[in-house]
UniProtKB/TrEMBL annotation:
Residues 171-287, 312-422 form the Response regulatory domain. Signal peptide: none annotated. PANTHER family: HISTIDINE KINASE, SENSOR HISTIDINE KINASE. This is histidine kinase. Residues 29-151 form the Histidine kinase domain. One of its GO terms (biological process) is phosphorelay signal transduction system. Its EC number is 2.7.13.3. It comes from the Bacteria. The keyword Cell inner membrane does not apply.
């Protein structure tokens, strides 16, 4: 948040951050936490009349029984503490008593809504935490947020580049009602070396389970037609196979397994649409979390016998199915694939990584494939451009010298030819 804070707080306030070593984890919504810190920092700025010293600290804290006795709503225990301290005017006891009330503000009309602190309070309460204020007129203010410690491992942000893709030879049951998605997933998992079973709904999946096959992981859509819910399926399957690993997938952010914007403890979710790489990584991650180490003879899908003329191909396509299909085919040809689902993401990748070929859809949700190609070329004139399109021509293709056209729908042979040509 460095940049954002600097710009918001202004040059005349010194900002210091003190982060304790061995910091514990907490499970909260990152955006809400950022908003809370930002709100506290803005209040601090206003209280200092834009000059002074702002300190943001993070550390581990233990709220003991005697503290809990004094604060009715506090549960004694371990917390991660985030505090914001300023050298501003401070608050009188009267102001402090009302500061967290919605719409309470001492700021001039039109300057403050009085909602800042009440939002901070709401977020902390919702996260099972506690807020404490220390303030005296003329002495500045410290606001401490206590967020409950979580024993879960840190959730690594999904990165495009998170290490090699590995498969395994466990058995995975794929439950998905959309046939196209199901077949693609089955093909991807199969190629990764897994034994794959499939079912179009929860009821049929249960039949597979009840036949007695040893399933290691259930990969199921959250929302499916039919009388049996996916969560019911999981419960019934776990009765038969207690060590079962489960990965849900869903296109909905709000659904039966997500409560208040966060997942129930121990629930794994892969949001749709997902890339082939994301699927492969997530599956391995779930196995690892469940303490299942990949078996030795596990195949690696890194192209070991990569031909000498292997290319790095950036595939930009917003349709997840087409993208995964294309990625598979390009990989099969021994090339390295990087996937992007929007033009801007592709542009960002192209500006940070060496690529040989940009294979892009023309109609993208943000910038057009043509614009993307021109921007990539401006940075890297040597990159070969391939437009994938359902039309005969691409508007503005003249501005991208040497660009090729891959006519949709395309198959292995067409991709092979166009990549051989470039
Ligand atoms: N760091 C601080 N130092 C002194 N007074 C503060 C501080 N933080 C909050 N206050 C007091 O608490 C009041 C309520 O704060 P709150 O953030 O809820 O609303 P606001 O800052 O007035 O408006 P908004 O945040 O919606 O712009 C403030 O108007 C101010 O009087
Ligand atoms: Mg405020």
């Amino acid at each position: 948040m460095d940049d954002l804070l600097r710009r918001t707080i202004g040059e005349a306030v010194e900002i210091e951050t003190v982060i304790a070593g061995g910091l514990w984890n907490t499970l909260v919504d990152p955006t809400n936490l950022e908003n809370a810190v930002l709100n506290l920092a803005i209040n601090a700025r206003d209280a200092m009349d834009a000059r002074g010293h702002l300190t943001i600290e993070a550390g581990n804290a233990f709220l003991d029984d005697s503290y809990a006795d004094l604060h009715a709503e506090v549960v004694a225990g371990q917390y991660v503490q985030v505090s914001v301290t300023d050298t501003g005017t401070g608050m009188t006891p009267e102001v402090m008593a009302q500061a967290f009330e919605p719409f309470f503000s001492t700021k001039p009309q039109g300057k403050g809504t009085g909602l800042g602190l009440s939002m901070v309070f709401g977020f902390v309460k919702q996260s099972g935490g506690h807020v404490k204020v220390y303030s005296e007129p003329g002495q500045g203010t410290t606001i401490k947020l206590y967020l409950p410690r979580s024993m879960q491992a840190e959730d690594a942000p999904a990165e495009i580049d998170a290490g090699p893709i590995v498969g395994g030879n466990e058995t995975i049951l794929v439950v998905e009602d959309d046939e196209a998605v199901r077949e693609t997933v089955v093909a991807v998992l199969d190629e990764l070396g897994y034994r794959v079973l499939k079912a179009p709904d929860a009821q049929s999946a249960l039949v597979v389970i009840e036949s007695g096959v040893a399933v290691d992981l259930l990969f199921t859509d959250v929302v499916m037609p039919g009388p049996l819910k996916s969560t019911e399926l999981v419960r019934k399957t776990k009765e038969r196979i207690p060590q079962l690993s489960v990965l849900f997938t869903s296109g909905y952010t709000e659904n039966s397994i997500v409560h208040g914007g966060r997942l129930d403890e121990g629930v794994n979710l892969l949001s749709k649409p997902y890339s082939r790489d994301a699927l492969a990584r997530k599956i391995r991650q779930v196995f690892t979390r469940d303490g299942k180490i990949p078996r030795l003879e596990m195949p690696s899908v890194e192209p070991e016998k990569a031909p000498r003329d292997a290319l790095v191909v950036l595939i930009c396509e917003d349709d997840a199915i087409i993208r995964m299909d294309t990625a598979d085919m390009v990989q099969e040809l021994g090339h390295t694939v990087i996937e992007a689902e929007t033009g801007l993401k592709a542009l960002q990748i192209a500006s940070t990584r060496e690529i040989d070929v940009l294979l892009t859809d023309v109609g993208l949700p943000d910038i057009s494939g043509g614009e993307l190609a021109r921007k990539v070329r401006a940075q890297r004139p040597e990159v070969a451009i391939v437009f994938a399109t359902g039309h005969d021509t691409v508007a503005g293709i003249d501005e991208v010298p040497g660009a090729s056209v891959l006519r949709k729908p395309y198959q292995f042979a067409q991709i092979q030819k166009v990549l051989a040509d470039v």
